[in-house]
Amino acid sequence: HAISAVIVTTTIIALVLAASMYAYQVLEQHRATAEFECAKESILAFNDALENVAWKPQATRSVRFTVEYGELRLIPNANSLEVVANVAGTNYTLYSETASILSYYILDKYITYGSGYESYILGSQNAILIGSAGSYGRAVVKQNSGWVYVTLDYRVRAMLSSIINVTGNNVNYVDFWIIKPWIDASIPYAYIHDFDLKARCLRVRTANPSGVIEVVGDNVDAVFYVKVGTWNPKPPPSISLKPNFPEGDGKTRVVFNVIVAEVQVYV
């Protein structure tokens, strides 16, 4: 009887331990899943905050993050950022710099969609917006190399802002609006626990304008090639330029302007 009691007791203890470990793993899974969903919402909220301050020098806003199972990484100069306009077969490089990104990472043992998974929760693969509608922000969920991560970067906006008569000729003015996140490369780049992620507009500046580009023709498009990390997918977007009417000298004129908002991202 004593030996039977020991065997039964040992078996019960082993079953309880196994059940406890399983329950703990399930609980951890649920907590990690909840954190991942919360991290996505926090990143979307931070995008709203950053876009709100982007064009207001020295304005600051912050968003609260709680991270235990993953980590938030602030990655300086991670994206190459280039803007090229093509008019009548000639390319004009208007802007070429780098921009920082932020990304939340979590192990795929907690969250898994399958290797190679990619889905946008904000914006799309397109690196350029034509017109005034849509968010600059672009947030994508990806799974790769044992991690699932949500990355936030910023697209370029292009619009035909005005047509102005200059010394008797109609000139198209096309503006490119760029939000450039900036992260100090000298500070730690990974954060966990509770913290406030801040966005502060450092300055709004203009790049050198292209000057007046003059081409022969009354039916001319400006075609845009934009790189935010990778080049914009084909076919490239374009804006139709207005010819020089009513003068009607058979030429089309355009000036490209680039306006850049530099926004510091920090904890």
Secondary structure: elements and pairs:
Elements: H1 2-53, E1 60-87, E2 90-107, E3 118-122, E4 128-130, E5 137-144, E6 147-154, E7 156-166, E8 169-182, E9 190-206, E10 213-216, E11 220-228, E12 230-231, E13 238-241, E14 251-266
Structure report:
By secondary structure, the chain is of the alpha+beta class. The protein is built from one helix and 14 strands; from the N terminus they run H-E-E-E-E-E-E-E-E-E-E-E-E-E-E. Strands 1, 2, 3, 4, 5, 6, 7, 8, 9, 10, 11, 12, 13 and 14 form a 14-stranded mixed sheet that branches. The longest helix has 52 residues, at 2-53. It is elongated and about 110 Å long.
In brief:
The chain has one helix at 2-53; strands spanning 60-87, 90-107, 118-122, 128-130, 137-144, 147-154, 156-166, 169-182, 190-206, 213-216, 220-228, 230-231, 238-241, 251-266. By secondary structure, it is α+β, with helices and mostly antiparallel strands.
Portion of residues in beta strands equals: over 45%
Overall pLDDT confidence: 90
List low-confidence stretches. Answer: none
Q: Helices and strands: which structural class?
A: alpha+beta
Termini separation = 65 Å
How much helix is in the residues? 10-25%
Gross morphology is elongated
Main beta-sheet strand count, sense and barrel state: 14 strands, mixed
Task: Provide a count of the helices.
Answer: 1
Please give the radius of gyration in angstroms. 26 Å
Task: Tell me the series of helices and strands, N- to C-terminal.
Answer: HEEEEEEEEEEEEEE
